[in-house]
Amino acid sequence: IFTAPSGFAYDLFRPLEAIATRMPELMDRVEVVATDLDPHGALAGELTGRAERLGIRFRFLRGDMTDSEMRRRFEEKAPYDVALFVGLSSWLPKPQTLDHLRWIRENLREDGLLVTDSFTPEAYALSGRYVGYKANYYEPEVYRVLVDYCGFDGLGADVESGRDGINHVLIAAPRVRRDERP
Q: Which residue in 152, 20, 2, 4 sits closest to 88, CA to CA?
């Protein structure tokens, strides 16, 4: 599993903990590569501890996920079964978002899954703008097209919207590449 940005990875560790409770024998099959800027140095220790308690293999890489040297380090464990790109699609400039989605497609197994999200411009999202962020908001239909453009079956992707209608989670499989079709 690849997660970038990871933050505290609640969206990943909570489900893994639930699985570990029911089927602990599966945990030795799990490996996670996580990355974040982690400006305060708080994430690596917290995430490593959670991974150790679960008995999973874990690697945290501190840095910019859009940096080419960091990507080479991520590729050491590729291809991935699952890639999470959650919480940043609206904050990265569009060229970097597209570049990251294309990178994920290149480093995801053909039977893998992308889990990503988009945000629509609502009052809650204004707080980022007030502290200087320039956000790129995407309605689910637009984000599906962007994901499709980057090599996923974005048009056939599952989308689930949060109860507040601001955050929209999209799950997409890689689209079969033309050169791989029979």
A: 4
**Phi, psi of 57, deg, nearest 5:** -80, 140
What whole-number distance in Å separates Cα of residue 98 and Cα of residue 147? 8
Q: Are 58 and 27 in contact (CB under 8 A)?
A: no
- Read off the tokens for 143: 């984000």
pTM of the model: 0.89
Rounded mean pLDDT of 20-40? 96
133: phi then psi, degrees, rounded to nearest 5: -80, 145
- Tell me if residue 91 falls in helix, strand or coil: coil
How many Å apart are CA 149 and CA 69, to the nearest integer?
Answer: 25
- The half-sphere exposure of 114 on its side-chain side, counting CA atoms within 13 A, is 33
pLDDT at 108: 98
Contact 113, 140 (CB under 8 A): no
pLDDT(128) > 70? no
Angle of CA points 64, 65, 68, to nearest 5°: 90
Mean pLDDT of the region 141-164: 95
What does the alpha-carbon distance between residue 34 and residue 57 come to, in Å, rounded to a whole number?
A: 11
